[in-house]
Amino acid sequence: MSCFLLPQEIIRKLTSAISRFWWSTKDNNRGLHLIAWSKICTPKDKGGLGFQDFKIFNLALLAKQLWRLLQYPNSLLARVLKGRYFRLSNPIDVSKASNPSYVWRSLMAAQPLLKSGLRKSIGSGQSTLVWSDPWVPTTPPRPAIPLGPSFNPSLRVRNLIDQNTNEWKHSLLHNLVAPTDIAHIKSLRPTRSPRPNAFVWTLTKSGVYSVKTGYNLAMEKMEPSDAAQVLEPSTTCLKAKVWKLKTTKKNQHFIWQVVSNCVPVCSSLADRHCGTDRACPRCGAEEETRNHLLFECPPAVQTWALADLPQLPGLFLSSSIYSIIDHALWRAKEYSVPENILDNIPWVIWYIWKARNDKVFNGRDTSPLETVQIVKSEADRWRLAQITEEIHEDDEGAATIDPPSTIPGPKCSIDGMVLTTEDGVQTFGSFASNRVLTPYTRNFKL
Asked: Where does the Reverse transcriptase zinc-binding domain lie (predicted)?
């Protein structure tokens, strides 16, 4: 993927294999795709699951190779390609080639991506054209905008710098450049040394291209423009905040499913022609929706009541699932709800769903009291595990020597070994330690 542009058919098969693994529950089963794959590949901070898009990732890797041709022009590969494809130019400015190889066509496929994030550092300014090279530090980088309709197309940045003081010629800038660009240009400091111009990647602090930033830039370019977007309340922020909840990844993912409308409730399955029954399997209501499942079904209402979360009129029990989730997980803090109650909410949502599935698949009725008891138990166990892991991480860096044992007789330092004496007495491996000063001090203690 880092050297060749993958054919669309191969990308389709790879994506299909991953999506089948993600959605299917049985072998040789396509599964029910509840949400578009493009939304799943959206980054988590934009409301998706953060899966990699193979086509964009392929381009980001190829852009890395194109970047290396710019940074290492004396390498063997760069010299071979320069003699064949860009003898009088560079890999960024070259457009077409006669009978190119598949490697070169692959690199050229990533050229628009790399160019969109490159800025030309001025250096001495001798080879940077003011009106055509992307040297102004904007987002994205671009050439300077002329003040009037007539300008010199061959004007170079060096002509805007006073060679004696190595400062910008302010009067010339005000006469030639648009006022909006003057502040950006003055933020650049000309170098005193005769350093040649070079390209920098604007999305990293070091100015060096990275595949991660290239991939993120390509994903941003794929987003629809403002004119094409639907003017309606967005749930993107709500989806992004789900991943910051202090709970298990399983609970985070299920709450994301609830907000993304990809929970297989009866009404949703009927809409997809996967059944005809829309009734709630727990209470028999005519329509089982996400809102009914989690907040309106009588067993769910009793579960929330036992969980001690105050049900504010117009907020908690409203007709909008998004308002309820937003209130339950975040805005309830404004009403002085105790933190220990709010921390259990993700588990309450998950185990209401579990109780519903027990009824559907196992025919077992789980009482609200039992659900709340499981919630408190699982939440406390998870929080205790987080504290134990933090303590373990803090102690990992400390190197200590095991104190000498005061227990007489043979001793085993590897868990699982058994020593048997001549009298038939067995000693089990009850002593174990992996904390030593150096690897040479790790030995058997008998």
From this structure: 209-304
